[in-house]
Specification:
Elements: E1 4-12, E2 16-21, E3 24-29, H1 32-38, E4 45-57, E5 62-70, H2 73-82, H3 90-96, H4 101-109, H5 113-117, H6 123-134, H7 156-167, H8 172-186, H9 192-201
């Protein structure tokens, strides 16, 4: 099984990308939210955590191997749990991910069926089923602040800067910490390139004992 692919992001569409790793180019399906995160990285080196499955009708022998890509192992694990709900399926589940998985997990854990019903292809009945099967099982992915309040909306430049740093090899927690520090110094209006440059000027964020 292919668990991770690193290479140059050659092409990007709304639902798939092509990543060239050496002499091999992989077509990888992605969720809409992942495609949005990857747009500023077109032509750069990226790493996608992948999931393999077979698409088609086995009765007719038309089974095609597919790869799905995620920007983190956490997103990949959430997706596996998410599509375990009866009636979701891989194709529908992927199309429905138009929000970060943390916000979807928040909606599940807070039993917000109205928010889930707004996801493409979900609807109220499926939203209720998702909550019934997953509530209490996706809290590790949720991002709500203590007390049940949703976190303050982050600037788009922060999310894109974190994505760039992760694609260049930083662990996501360190990337977030560095970008937060860069925003404190440069302000909320700083652009993606400014934040990435400032983040790279920082040393390791954790002190050695």
């Amino acid at each position: 099984m292919i668990a991770r692919i690193s290479g140059q992001l050659e092409t990007l569409a709304d639902d798939r990308v092509i990543v060239a790793a050496g002499s091999v180019a992989y077509e990888i399906l992605v969720a809409p939210v992942t495609a949005d995160d990857l747009r500023p990285l077109l032509g750069r080196q990226v790493t996608l955590h992948t999931l393999e499955y077979f698409d088609g009708n086995p009765a007719y022998g038309q089974m095609v191997p597919r790869l799905i890509g995620f920007l983190s192992e956490t997103e990949r694990r959430f997706f596996v749990r998410y599509v375990s709900v009866q009636g979701i399926g891989i194709a529908k589940g992927l199309r429905s991910l138009v929000l970060p998985v943390g916000r979807i997990a928040d909606a599940i854990e807070s039993r917000d069926s109205a928010a889930l019903a707004q996801l493409p292809g979900v609807g109220r009945r499926t939203a209720d089923k998702i909550i019934a099967e997953l509530c209490g099982k996706v809290d590790e992915f949720a991002v709500a602040a203590p007390g049940g309040r949703a976190p303050r909306e982050e600037p788009e430049s922060k999310r894109e800067a974190v994505t760039v740093l992760v694609s260049l090899g930083l662990a996501r927690p360190e990337a977030i910490e560095r970008v937060d520090a860069a925003i404190e110094r440069l302000g909320q209006e700083a652009g993606v390139e400014q934040l990435v440059r400032e983040a790279f000027h920082q040393g390791p964020t954790s002190a050695e004992g």
